[in-house]
Amino acid sequence: xxxxxxxxxxxxxxxxxxxxxxxxxxxxxxxxxxxxxxxxxxxxxxxxxxxxxxxxxxxxxxxxxxxxxxxxxxxxxxxxxxxxxxxxxxxxxxxxxxxxxxxxxxxxxxxxxxxxxxxxxxxxxxxxxxxxxxxxxxxxxxxxxxxxxxxxxxxxxxxxxxxxxxxxxxxxxxxxxxxxxxxxxxxxx
Amino acid sequence: xxxxxxxxxxxxxxxxxxxxxxxxxxxxxxxxxxxxxxxxxxxxxxxxxxxxxxxxxxxxxxxxxxxxxxxxxxxxxxxxxxxxxxxxxxxxxxxxxxxxxxxxxxxxxxxxxxx
Lengths: 189, 115
Prior knowledge:
The complex is a heterodimer. By secondary structure, chain A is mainly alpha-helical. Chain A has a single domain, classed as RNA polymerase sigma factor, region 2, helix turn helix motif (Rna Polymerase Sigma Factor, Chain: A, Orthogonal Bundle). Chain A has 9 helices and no strands. The longest helix of chain A is centred in the N-terminal third of the chain and has 23 residues, at 25-47. Chain B is mainly α. Chain B has one domain (29-114). Chain B is 79% helix and 0% strand. Chain B is built from 4 helices and no strands. Chain B has helices spanning 8-17, 27-78, 83-86, 90-114. The interface between A and B is large, with 43 and 30 residues.
C-alpha cells in the first residue's frame, strides 16, 4: 500500500461527504479527476478500444454518482469505482457485438505469434498481445492486480470471487503467460 | 504486490503495466456536464409531475372546497363558542384556501426550477 494511501482515502471520504450532503457536482468532478486515469486505464486494457473504454468510463462514473450513497467507506473508493467499472463493462459486453469482434481480432493476432517467443523480442512490449492468451476473467484479475495495484482482498471485492480463487486465477494467468512467452522462472525473493 | 514473493513474471507484468497516467483532457468536465444535465432533467421531471398532479387534482379539489361550507357550517353552528365564525363568509374562505395552495405549489415549483 503506498504510504499516502490513507491520506488519499480520507480525502475521498471528505469529497463523497460533500457530494452527498449538498449534491455538489463540483466535489464529484474532483473525485472524477482524481480517479479517471485508473478507471480509464483499466477499461482500456480490458476492451482494447480507447473510445469504447472512455464511453464505458463515463457510464461508470454516472452509475457511481447515482449509487454514491451505497459506498460505506470501509473499503477503498477506487476499489468501489473499479467494481462499478467492471460491472459496466460486463453489462456492455453482453449487449454489444463490438467487443466480441475486438476479442476475435486480438485472438487472431495472438495466433500469428503462437510459438513461444523470448523475453526480449518486441512482441512482449505489446501488453495487449500478452494479455490475449488469458481468458477474459483472468485478464480482468491480472489488470486489477498488476495494473491497478489492488490487493487480493480488494480484487475479491471488485470481482465477487473469494480471495483464494483470486490467488488461483493470478497463478493460472502467470502460468499461461510463462507458457506462451518463455519468461525465465526464478524467484527474486 | 507485497502479498507474495515476486518472481520474474510479476516484475515483467508490473513493468508492462506501468502506464503513464491518462490525461484528463476534458473527461471529468464531460462527466460533470452529464451529471448536471441529469440533475436538471430530474428537477424538470419533478416540476412537471407537480404541475400535472395539480392539474389533475385541481378540479376535484375545488369541487370539494365548494362543498366545504355545507360541511363546515353545521359543525360551526353546533359550537356555541365559535358562533362568530359561523357568520364568516365561508365561500370566501375556500377561495383563500385554494389560493394559498396554488401559491404554495407555485413557490415549490419555482424553488425546484431555481435549484
